[in-house]
């Protein structure tokens, strides 16, 4: 098994330091138009992040078992070398794009990912607001395991991708050099992703690279100030409600559904999907009177 570090654990001190620096900068040089920080919101985000560490450890047990079984069955093997790691990072980022996009357009997956979008603030603490049901992502990466990527190498690439995305959760950085904005995900691109305006919804899904969005038609540049949060925001800082509120909504919709077709739609279609209301039958026009009746 390749001996690769846990990038997320090694990065925790940097996460804390950078968050403190951002808080101080917001206090010393506030931007009246920025969302800024709120104590309860930041505390909720940090709690969600700490909780995700424990839940992710539990979810990894069955996922690692599946990945290991697939890896043992495939004859392919990708050696862990410096240049193959770069290729694996590129491939993982590609599949991350589709996983991320899927978690926005399929409601049962959105129920997991909505946690990360539930804050109306956008700062480095928001990056820590992670779901507690992240088991929904593993099927998207099965092709990499089937192609001979070791599960530990995939875990390293996923951790590196997650660490990269930490610093792009900020309003303190404006647009970066044009060449960088064209290739890589940046704070400007990710602000759009977290915005709740109609033109910004479900855009900019990239992890490290933004080129996937440019290639597959989901890229939108930042042109107006973003309004962060959900189209229907939740009014709670309770971590358990933040983690489960969309699952509760799905359960209520399933209970009220009138057909199996509607139940399937409530689970597997988009987050805003609802069945079309039945149209009232159109009344038939009055019959023409007979010729004899038209005679005065």
UniProtKB/TrEMBL annotation:
This protein's UniProt keywords: Lipid metabolism, Membrane, Oxidoreductase, Transmembrane, Transmembrane helix
A Pfam family that the UniProt record links to this protein: FA_hydroxylase
GO MF term (any one): glyceryl-ether monooxygenase activity
Highest taxon above the source species: Bacteria
Membrane-topology annotation of the record: Multi-pass membrane protein
Keyword Membrane assigned: yes
Entry's localization field: Endomembrane system
GO cellular component: endomembrane system; membrane
Fatty acid hydroxylase domain span: 85-218
Keyword NAD (UniProt): no
Membrane-spanning ranges: 7-26, 46-68, 80-98
InterPro entries: Fatty_acid_hydroxylase, Sterol_desaturase/TMEM195
Region annotation (Disordered) ranges: 271-296
GO biological process, one term: lipid biosynthetic process
Protein name (record): Sterol desaturase/sphingolipid hydroxylase, fatty acid hydroxylase superfamily
């Amino acid at each position: 098994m390749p001996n690769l570090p846990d990038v997320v654990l090694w990065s925790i001190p940097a996460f804390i330091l950078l968050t403190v620096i951002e808080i101080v900068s917001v206090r010393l040089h506030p931007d009246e138009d920025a969302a800024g920080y709120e104590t309860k919101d930041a505390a909720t985000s940090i709690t969600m992040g700490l909780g995700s560490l424990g839940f992710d450890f539990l979810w990894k047990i069955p996922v690692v078992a599946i990945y290991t079984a697939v890896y043992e069955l495939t004859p392919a093997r990708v050696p862990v070398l410096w240049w193959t790691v770069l290729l694996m990072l590129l491939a993982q980022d590609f599949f991350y794009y589709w996983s991320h996009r899927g978690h926005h357009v399929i409601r049962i997956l959105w129920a997991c990912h909505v946690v990360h979008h539930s804050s109306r603030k956008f700062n480095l603490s928001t990056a820590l607001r992670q779901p507690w049901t992240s088991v929904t992502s593993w099927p998207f990466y099965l092709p990499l395991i089937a192609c001979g990527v070791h599960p530990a190498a995939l875990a390293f690439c996923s951790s590196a991708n997650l660490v990269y995305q930490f610093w792009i959760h900020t309003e303190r950085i404006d647009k970066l050099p044009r060449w960088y904005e064209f290739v890589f995900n940046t704070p400007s691109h990710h602000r759009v992703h977290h915005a709740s305006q109609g033109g910004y919804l479900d855009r900019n899904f990239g992890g490290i690279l933004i080129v996937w969005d440019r290639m597959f038609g989901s890229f939108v540049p930042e042109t107006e100030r973003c309004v962060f949060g959900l189209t229907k925001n939740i009014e709670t800082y309770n971590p358990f409600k933040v983690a489960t509120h969309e699952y509760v909504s799905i359960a209520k919709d399933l209970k009220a559904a009138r057909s199996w077709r509607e139940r399937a739609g409530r689970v597997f279609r988009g987050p805003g999907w609802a069945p079309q209301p039945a149209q009232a039958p159109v009344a038939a026009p009055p019959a023409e009177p007979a010729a004899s009746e038209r005679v005065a």
